[in-house]
Amino acid sequence: xxxxxxxxxxxxxxxxxxxxxxxxxxxxxxxxxxxxxxxxxxxxxxxxxxxxxxxxxxxxxxxxxxxxxxxxxxxxxxxxxxxxxxxxxxxxxxxxxxxxxxxxxxxxxxxxxxxxxxxxxxxxxxxxxxxxxxxxxxxxxxxxxxxxxxxxxxxxxxxxxxxxxxxxxxxxxxxxxxxxxxxxxxxxxxxxxxxxxxxxxxxxxxxxxxxxxxxxxxxxxxxxxxxxxxxxxxxxxxxxxxxxxxxxxxxxxxxxxxxxxxxxxxxxxxxxxxxxxxxxxxxxxxxxxxxxxxxxxxxxxxxxxxxxxxxxxxxxxxxxxxxxx
Length: 325
Known about the structure:
This protein is α/β, with parallel strands linked by helices.
């Protein structure tokens, strides 16, 4: 009987380790600094979000949260680093899903799998695409652009920051949905791509709100439409779906992920606190200046969104025959 009781005590201790212990871990987290890996250089959208989240997490948890910019390979370098980190909640990755999701199809030999090696924490924010056109292009709506393009197949050119960049994929999705053959012209960087509209080198571009406003305000480009929804930054500009292409929606989606295997109580704690931070009026006001809207979700909702984007861009890449060297 004594030996049987000893075995029962050992089993109970083990059970506590795997149940109560995980809860305790979540309650004690964090006990030392946290790192947010960002796959892009300082100054961009992911950096703005990373530093906003890090500032408020540091204040609320009294633990330093640092931003570690690791640019390279369309942010896949940073994603790889984060995916191989210790899955304890002390490493997060700020991802731009419009870059990460297509990478699964474009780069079959990546060192990580977005759907298996990283686990969703929360969607952080949504951004608006602006469809810019040259001021010399004789169209005033998406429907007129489509009609013009069909009457002048191959004459329209659109710019992007490079092959397989979000703006390139946005243009190809528009081509497929509208039945057009706009010519893709890649540039070295987003600034050059948007600047090509002002110089008249191209007639169409998909750009972020911050990149678009200076050109629109100076009269060097027209905001033809936005997607997926209207923005107070450009009042009166309709969505692409409203103005000629029903069902067309495209969103700049940003979110936080952790290495696969991170304890669920820790994921839940990160999700709850980051969600609280994103709903603060000061944070919403700060992000609105960059054309972004806080948009926290559950981990499950964010995971489904990522899977949907992987499927969407896999189809576009195959149909448009996009390849990277």
